[in-house]
Amino acid sequence: MAPEVRIMANAREILEKLIGFPSVVGSANAPIVSYIRDYFVALGAHVSELPGPEGNRSNLFVSMGPRDRAGIILSGHTDVVPIEGQPWTSPAFALRQGGDRLYGRGTSDMKGFLAAAMAVAAGVNAEKLRRPLRFEFSYDEEAGCRGVPHMIEAIPSICALPASCIVGEPSQMIPILAHKGKAAVKFTVEGTAGHSSRPDRGLNAIHGLSTLLAKAVAQSDLLKHGQQNELFLPSYSTLQVGVIEGGLSLNVIPQFASFDVEVRAIPGAEPYSLLEPIFKAFPELEKVGLKVKADRLSEYPGMELPEDSDLATLMTRATGRNPIRAVSYGTEAGLFAKTGIPSIICGPGNVDRAHKVDEYILLSELNECCSVLDRVASDLAA
User: Could you tell me if 111 and 9 lie in one domain?
Assistant: First the structure.
């Protein structure tokens, strides 16, 4: 069997095993981490398991080749979104093939990339690498990139800072150079409960929340006319309220009310700063006795890789495809870029298939990813 054919066959086998782990976001991930760790240990790689503060989840960082030199990270997350409420036609955590399609939760987002990266690693002769090939497997990306910051913080204690990072989120193997940053916050107002017939004896939390909500809506409209970047659709930073909660009954003055808001900021704009008009309204509510708090739910910065950068040139050559300049969703790439590691997005699958019933990846996409990553690994040995 030719080496490239063997890599592709191994990738399919590895993907079947990865899909078999129900590594749902927010849950313990020891089984899938142990499988990946043992796989790389058997290859003779240097493996660092990095437990997170949650106590039941870990990141995994793997290095092949000289650890004192800069190299490339192949980056992906092990967690997947839940399947509850989705009427799958076959078990979601068992890989099923139908023609060129491989079905299973996480096939596109993003265990297909993990499988390809692991298969390629088996064909790498670490002693011949002039620059190292590294792998990172993070947790809780689907909860707002909560796991990877702990790993990025640990990298300097493990090896030299990598020169670049390829984040394998589904892009149909088309390199993506930029994405927006994001911040999500829950705003909660606490008042005083009471009977609705005596509003003079209570403090209505929903009424107070409406003041903050009005500020959010006004800021959303203002952003449309603010800083622009024509690479993105839409070309401006956005703000939306996605969840509102509050009240027990119509005849009860509500004691609590809250809303969840997210901002997606074009590169150069700090996501949390776009929420400032909401924070500035706090004193108005506190003056009448209401309590207000803000809980950060998730965050990651935007990123923008120059089209003429070494990494963009490498991935254009390796894929044979011109890059997409920008997308409006976000990834862990922004966190690597903020640390000073130039990053790009490129992986098999399609984001439009992610998180859906009967999620799938094309076998041809998986094979193409193997070929591209094999070229990247060969470049490190040149």
Answer: yes
Query: 42 with 165, same domain?
Result: yes
Residue of 161, 158, 109 whose CA lies nearest to 131: 161
Are 311 and 263 in the same domain?
no
Record the tokens describing residue 245, joined without a space.
């909660």
Burial call 179-200: b when 16+ CB within 10 Å, e when fewer: bbbbbbbebbbbbebbeeeeee
Phi, psi of 38 (to 5 degrees): -65, -35
DSSP state of 111: I
Contact indicator for 311, 344 with CB cutoff of 8 Å? yes
Tell me the C-alpha distance between 126 and 167, whole Å.
21
Domain count for the chain, please give it.
Answer: 2
Q: pLDDT tens digits for 239-296?
A: 999 999 999 999 999 999 999 999 999 998 999 999 999 999 999 999 999 999 999 9
DSSP string over 119-166: HHHHT--GGG-SS-EEEEEES-GGGTS-SHHHHHHHHHHHSSPPSEEE
**Positive or negative, the Cα torsion across 305, 306, 309, 313?**
positive
Tell me: do 89 and 192 sit in the same domain.
Answer: no
Q: What is the DSSP letter of 45?
A: -
On whether both 166 and 37 belong to a single domain, the answer is: yes
Burial of 119 (0-12, 13-18, 19+ CB in 10 A): buried
For strands 252-253 and 164-167, give the pairing: unpaired
- CATH number (domain holding residue 167): 3.40.630.10
How much is the average pLDDT of 185-203? 98
Confidence of residue 344 (pLDDT cuts 50, 70, 90): very high
What's the distance, Cα to Cα, between the start and end of the chain in Å? 25
